[in-house]
Amino acid sequence: MSKEMQELQKQWHSMVQSIHSNSNVVAFMNSRVGQYLDDHPFVALSLLMFIAVSAIPVAFFLIFVVTTAIMACISVIVMEGVVIAIGGIALLCVLCGLGALSLGVSGVLSVCYVVLSALVNYWYASRGQIREQEVNGSFPQKSPSVLDLSANNGKNE
C-alpha cells in the first residue's frame, strides 16, 4: 500500500473511533435496535440508504409545508382585508340609505307640522270669531247640511 493510502486509512479509522466513542452512539448501540442492526448489517445499510435517499423529498415536503403556511397566512390577511373592505362599502351604503330615509322622514314630518299648525291656527281663529260674534250677539247662520235636506225631503213625502 502506498503511503497516502495508509494516511487516508488512519484518518478514516480515527473518524470511525470518534463516532464509536460518542456517548449517544454508545447508548444507541447498547439498545435492542442497535444490537439488531449490528447483527444484521444489510438491514442497517438499507435503513441508512432509505434515510439518506428520503432526506431530499422530506426536505422538499417541509419546504412546501412552510411555504404553504406562509402563503395561507398572507392569503388570510389579504382575505381579511377584502372582507373588511366589502363590509365597509356595505356599511357606507346602509348609512347613505339611512341618511336618505331620515331626510325623507324629516321632510314628511316638517310638512305635517306646517299643515297641522295651519289647521290648528285656522281652527282657533274660527273659534275666536265665533266667540266674538257670540259676545256681540250676532250668531252666524248655518247653512242647512246635506243630511238636513234629506231629512226634510223624507218628511215632505
What does this 3D model show about the protein?
- The protein has 157 residues and is mainly α.
- The chain contains 5 helices and no strands.
What topology emerges from the helices and strands here?
Layout: H1 3-20, H2 23-30, H3 32-39, H4 41-136, H5 146-156
What structural class is derived from the secondary structure elements? mainly alpha
Largest sheet: none
Order of helices and strands: HHHHH
What is the count of β-strands? 0
Distance between the termini: 157 Å
**Strand percent estimate:** under 5%
**What is Rg?**
53 Å
For this entry, give a set of tags:
0% strand; rod-shaped; 157 residues
In short:
This protein has helices at residues 3-20, 23-30, 32-39, 41-136, 146-156. With 157 residues, the protein is mostly helical.
